[in-house]
Amino acid sequence: MTQAKSDLYHDIALQAQGLLADESDLIANLANVSALLWLNLSDINWAGFYLLKDDTLVLGPFQGKPACVRIPVGKGVCGTAAATGDIQIVENVHEFGGHIACDAASNSEIVMPFYINGQLAGVLDIDSPQFSRFDQQDAEGLARIVNILQDSLK
Length: 154
Hints:
- By secondary structure, this protein is α+β, with helices and mostly antiparallel strands.
- It has one domain (5-152): GAF domain (Beta-Lactamase, 2-Layer Sandwich), CATH 3.30.450.
- It has four helices and six strands.
- The protein has helices spanning 5-20, 26-40, 76-84, 136-152, and strands at 46-53, 56-64, 70-72, 88-90, 108-116, 119-128.
- Strands 3-2-1-6-5-4 form a six-stranded antiparallel β-sheet, sandwiched between helices.
- Strand 1 and strand 2 (56-64) form a beta hairpin.
- Helix 1 (5-20) packs antiparallel against helix 2 (26-40) and helix 1 packs parallel to helix 4.
């Protein structure tokens, strides 16, 4: 990466603020954030959202190949993030118990829950064909972007 991760995420956050500043529509904002991440993050093959509907995560706006449509809360990396409320950084998805393989080319993943008015609304999911693609800097940078998103949806 030519730019330090912190600088990259700072730039993405500024772009997200601009895109989301005057818009509160959930689908529009999720679509723009997924596109923004897709365009700016290297070595990823999927970036998007799953929305919580009852006890199931349902596919929302994304960039990448077609994906699994429904994921039960508590299942796979996305469902685990939704069930625990914790960011999931998985260096090798093939070693994650219960991993749901939507794209066989994915080898690592980061998933972050997001909230609307304090209630779990869904998860941000980003996959990579590289092993160990995501780290704590990614988690911190994405948390900043998710916070901007959450603020736009109040």
